[in-house]
Amino acid sequence: MGQKGDFSRRTFLQKAGFSSIVLTLGWQWPASGATACNIVQFDSTAQAETELMAWISIDGAGKVTIFNHRSEMGQGTWQAIPQIIAEELEVSMDDVQIRFAQANPQKYGPQPQEGSFSVRGWYQQLLTIGASAREMLIAAAANQWNVDKDQCYAENGHVLHRASGKKLGYGMLVKDAAALKPPLLVQLKARKDYKIIGKPLRRNDIVSKVNGSAVFGLDKQLPGMLYAVVERNPRFRGKVKNFDDKATKSVKGVTHVLKVQRVVFGLVYEGVAVVADSLWSAMKGRTLLKVEWDDEGFEHLASEQLFTRMNEDLEKPLPSDDFETAFKNTSKTIDAHYEMPYQSHSCMEPLNCIANVKDDSIEIWGPIQEANWIQADLSDRFKIPIANVKVNMTFLGGGFGRKAFPDYPLEAALISKEIKTPVQVVWTREDDMSMGPFRPGATYKCRGGVDNQNKIFSFQIISASQPIGPGQDKDATPELVTKNTGGIAGLVADYYKSIPHYSFGGMPTKSPIPTMWWRAPGANVDTFACESFIDELAHLAAQDPLEFRKAHFITPRYQALITKLASVSGWQSRNKNGGWGMALTECFGGIVGQAVKVSRQQDGKIRIDKVYAVMDCGWYVNPDIIRAQVEGSIVMAIGASVNHATHFEDGRAIEKNFHTYPLPRIGEIPQMEVHIMENDEKPGGVGEPGLPAFAPALCNAIFDLTGKRIRKLPFKLDEV
After folding, report:
1. Cα–Cα distance measured from residue 467 to residue 479, given in angstroms and rounded to the nearest whole number
2. Using H for helix, E for strand and C for coil, what is the string for 269-299?
3. Which of 33, 119, 123, 462 is the most exposed, having the fewest neighbouring CB atoms within 10 Å of its CB?
4. 217-295+345-426, what's its fold?
5. Strand order from edge to edge, sheet including 152-155
6. Which residues of the chain have pLDDT under 50?
7. What pTM value is reported for the model?
8. Extents of the domains making up the chain
9. Cα radius of gyration rounded to whole Å, the chain
10. Which CATH architecture has domain 9-211?
11. pLDDT tens for residues 604-643?
């Protein structure tokens, strides 16, 4: 319940139980520490919206607007975040409109879209926001009726008085409610009392995406806006020596040709921008541009050289430790080598950004995955107060980590500043696919063995890979980083309890290729080696792969998940006319088990018949979004396993479009069943944990069918 008197921001955060995440609920915080409600009134008409809390506005007709402060790239925050707030606000999602919030960390707290964090990191705060707004509306109605607010309750966008049956809509109450202080403490609903959380509600963005009215970055237009494309160095690091733009400027509509930069992990990358009054003219002008590059001072590597270097790094001496002694004393041992390729992000919507830079302000629009970082980066580089840097999010046609990076908004802002006009910079498919940064490739040395009870006794995985960054070719000689008491991305936590001797380490490999995170960073490569090698250990022990894993699980939560996977897939009664494989992963707070069935067709080719997935993400919002996320993760994992990879030749990326980097076609997609665990655990991630388990599960199934181990991705199903 609310308390009288002023209170400080620190006091509110402590009493409301918020974690270290700073969350401002539409308030101003004067220097004295006293608080005052911050009300935004758009006009003086009866229909004007009033901001009740930072996430919630209500107009005079009672229409509720809930702001989504996170990016929406298909993962479902556009629905999930408002659905959380609406539950405690007591409004139907059918009566809610949703808008993107601008970047504003003072108002909304951190707004990154990464690490599957939107629900698992914010659900308590968002529930509290909805409940606080509800209580303010109830208090406003009680004041109007001159009754105790405990005699009132909220339902379906109205406040009702139990005794008299009086009812007032939120639109009649919002102005009075907005003048009240949000209560310090509110009672949140028990999960059993939810009306919309946990329900498979239709996503509010689907209709607009089907009928074409949804605004993605490429759809956004400003009056007087120009268009730009950039010729960038195909070797990434090379500088512009000179360029000849005579032919380019002869193209009708071309207005400017200028040198431009973008910054990738602190390293300046150069290019030449062609600006025109239409995208077509800019692209045509670019084809006529002649650029001479200075490519001295860094290596021009090919893929073969990169992986040779990684494999050489794997063979460097390891420090003597307890694992070595344990491994020598293991009853039965095995070793294996695994390899993962470089990958591009290849989002369906290539990178793009609109920038309008003035002397004292910057405003950008586009598919922005990490609004706060980009806002802060532009503020710092242009020396403009962060309050004068507006970042407007549109829908994203995929992100996967790439659109969190600040390089492409910076490039657009620099061009706009130079030409003193709003400009949209568009990356072509070829730019998007070949300019990086990329997911780094990796190689793995795996050693381990089982004891006389057929359980894992020793387990070691050492990797060699590029660290995420601009490239490490100028670093000192790398040294092995060992993690004998740490972990490896994607490995289920119970293994650390049940395996008596384990060791993990990584060797940073030097290369100038720019690398960055890619959906399920770390786990998307490490899980392939981990879960494939655990399968090898199961066969070394002559044990059923699922039962072998289950024997290592101590915690009931993991036992329940793998038992569920066995049940829904029919693992114990699986027929022998196909191959079956399974794998598990745990990352970003989510745990996923997948079982894959494959078969050999009459033409001799292997087909992926079906994928069973069990997701344990604890407390969840919308089961349909979860299923869609896991299905999308599996499709993306199919592509990364059997369809595509990025290769390099003479320091340049080879694959530049989908004819050489083929995505899965609809005929390649198997049947999928996605099941969700019901428990009382805290919420975990979905969009990232759903991906890593597929590749090892598929390869384990192929081994079951053919006896052949797949230790290198991608591979061609037709050639197995």
Report:
1. 13
2. EEEEEEEECCHHHHHHHHHCCEEEEECCCCC
3. 33
4. Aldehyde Oxidoreductase; domain 4 (3.30.365)
5. 152-155, 158-161, 167-169
6. 1-46, 476, 483, 485
7. 0.91
8. 9-211, 217-295+345-426
9. 28
10. 2-Layer Sandwich (3.30)
11. 999 999 999 999 999 999 999 999 999 999 999 999 999 9
